[in-house]
Amino acid sequence: MFERQIKGIIAVSIFLAFIPFIGFFISPQMNSKSPVLSTSGSHALMIEVVLDNGESGVYFVNPRTSVNQMFSQLGFNRKITEDMQLQNGMKIRLVPEEDHRGIVVEKMDAAKRLALGLLLDINLAGRDELKLIPGVGDVLAASIVAEREKIGRFDKLDQLMDIKGIKEKKLSQLKQYLYIDQL
Fold first, then answer.
1. Which of 16, 24, 38, 40 could be stapled to 60 by a disulfide with Cβ–Cβ 3.0 to 4.6 Å?
2. Pairing, β 178-179 against β 120-121
3. Helices (H), the chain
4. Could you tell me the pLDDT band of residue 10, with boundaries at 50, 70 and 90?
5. In this structure, CATH architecture of domain 119-179
């Protein structure tokens, strides 16, 4: 009786030892396809699309892709008459088809931009958006906005050093999150 139990344990152990090998050889043959435009590359543009029913998603597209090309890749049955090249951080809101515009183009909100590793334009970011940056609190965010209002707009990020509390070290930290859009 004891001998039969040992043989049973050995048989189960051998069977269990082969399970990882079976999974290794079967998994490449399984059809595990990623959704369209769901994987990013080093040069991919990050575009948010908001459907007219309120659903939204962020898609990764190749540079030099137009709105209509992206819609086609996503399987949307909609073409806009004034097609345009996509830019990183765009938010494209589809409007009901009876609206002649077809889409409304905006910038992605600050929280999504920062979560995706995109920079904020220092000349457009509001106080609440600036507070999303690590190391920027209420006082510093208010000081940045006040300085921007005083000078009109920042021409270079080094101008942030004119603000009390921003020295070289702090500026180098902020530069990881901010940019200036060249008009």
1. 40
2. parallel
3. 2-26, 67-74, 110-115, 127-130, 138-151, 168-174
4. confident
5. Orthogonal Bundle (1.10)
47-81, pLDDT tens digit by residue?
A: 999 988 888 899 999 999 999 999 999 888 888 88
Sign of the four-CA dihedral 56, 90, 141, 169: positive
Cβ of 153: how many Cβ atoms within 10 Å?
13
* Stretch 137-144: mean pLDDT: 96
- The CA-atom distances, in angstroms, between 35 and each of 39, 108, 167 are 8, 21, 45
Instruction: Delimit the domains of the chain by residue range.
Output: 45-109, 119-179
The C-alpha atoms of residue 130 and residue 141 are separated, in whole angstroms, by: 6
Q: What is the pTM of this model?
A: 0.71
The CATH architecture assigned to 45-109 reads: Roll (3.10)
Q: What is the pLDDT of residues 118-133, one digit of tens each?
A: 999 999 999 999 999 9
3-state secondary structure of 107: strand
Q: Write the DSSP assignment of 21-71 as a string of letters.
A: HHHHHHGGGS--PPPTT----TT-EEEEEE-TTS-EEEEEE-TT-BHHHHH
pLDDT at 39 over 80: no
